[in-house]
Design goal:
Helix content: 55-70%
CATH class of the largest domain: Mainly Alpha
Keywords: Membrane, Transmembrane, Transmembrane helix
Strand content: under 5%
Oligomer: single chain
Region (Disordered): 315-338
Low-confidence stretches: 285-338
Shape: elongated
Transmembrane segments: 12-37, 49-70, 98-120, 127-147, 167-188, 217-238, 244-263
Number of strands: 3
Radius of gyration: 24 Å
Number of domains: 2
Biased composition (Basic and acidic residues): 321-338
Strand order of the largest sheet: 1-2-3
């Protein structure tokens, strides 16, 4: 193939790309941890899960970068005369290559577990909603396990051989479908809640309390990873060596998506708080925001990870003419819903 990227060049570019993205990820990770501690976003159970999940993903990404540097030194420096860069990279059965791919798989598994859990929380802990995404994750784990085993058995230079093509295509397809599905479920749930709130007159669609900016942040952040998976699927189907470059970018990209989402939502919540705190103080006490988790806390600085759409129950209010009627307190707004 005339346009084929030489494998030795693809190897160097892949490490360079991962290091570049890891630098971006590291800066976002530090900012995320700082915001979580400063704004006390790890007080609830779900927030703690996402906090420790974020730490675990950063540790995996750091190990992946370190292992890639080790492989680069062995292939291009220490074993350059004895083996050569191309033969070294094509030897899929080497322990460092298997470990490198295993870390890649573990990173995506952790991310998939967190996105499924987020979907579970957003849908009020509805187990039925996450059955299909969970099954896709289990299938992905099995397919990755088989592919890692095949790496140790295939002959030299058969990354695009028939033995691996089936399983690699399965892995990429499952990851793509699973992420599109969970992101779609989260987005649809938030959009439906937004529409219901507007219909009952809590606020207008352009209100500061609108959830549409949160919805946009989630979709935009998730699309980074989804588009990358789509490119990876296309390059692997074309048997192009550029797929190595995109594959190495997956690990830091996953971390970037999660940290970027947390930072943007946190800053959005803080701006809403600054703009509405005076207005909120003038409301009746039972209409004010309470520290109940999701989108609104006493500091208005929590994340989308703890969303709980359930109302906390009806209460009696009285209109100007003296007639009583029931309204329901909406936890996600801190306002009354008829």
């Amino acid at each position: 193939m005339a346009s084929q990227l030489p494998l030795d060049i693809a190897g160097i570019l892949s490490v360079w790309m991962e290091c570049l993205l890891f630098g971006i990820y590291a800066s976002l990770f530090i900012q995320t941890v700082f915001l979580m501690w400063k704004q006390r976003l790890i007080r609830t159970g779900p927030s703690k899960i996402f906090f420790w999940g974020t730490l675990l993903m950063f540790l995996i990404a750091a190990m992946h970068v370190a292992l890639n540097f080790y492989r680069l030194l062995r292939g291009y420096v220490w074993l350059r005369e004895e083996v050569g860069p191309e033969n070294y990279l094509l030897d899929l059965g080497r322990w460092d290559n298997v470990a490198h791919n295993a870390l890649n798989a573990i990173m995506t598994w952790v991310a998939d577990c967190l996105i499924i859990y987020r979907c579970f929380i957003v849908w009020n802990r509805n187990y039925y909603i996450v059955i299909v995404p969970s099954l896709l994750l289990i299938m992905s784990i099995i397919a990755n396990g088989i592919a890692l085993k095949e790496f140790t058995d295939v002959p030299l230079g058969t990354i695009f051989g028939a033995t691996l093509v089936h399983w690699m295509n399965t892995i990429y397809a499952l990851a793509f479908v699973q992420n599109v599905m969970t992101t779609g479920l989260i987005a649809w749930r938030i959009w439906r809640q937004e529409k219901e709130s507007v219909n009952v007159g809590i606020y207008s669609a352009d209100s500061r309390s609108s959830l549409l900016p949160i919805l946009r942040i989630i979709v935009e952040s998730a699309m980074i990873y989804v588009v990358e998976l789509l490119v990876l699927i296309i390059l692997y189907a074309l048997k192009h060596n550029a797929q190595f470059v995109v594959q190495e970018a997956v690990v830091p990209t996953v971390g970037i998506v999660f940290t970027l989402m947390t930072i943007r939502i946190s800053k959005r919540s803080y701006k809403v708080h600054c703009a509405t705190v005076t207005e909120d103080q003038s409301r009746p006490i039972q209409w004010r925001a309470r520290s109940v988790g999701p989108m609104v806390t006493t500091e208005y600085t929590t994340t989308v990870d703890d969303i709980d759409m359930k109302p906390i129950g009806p209460f009696q209010v009285q209109d100007d003419e003296g007639s009583k009627y029931e309204e329901t307190y909406d936890k996600t707004r801190g306002r009354a819903v008829v």
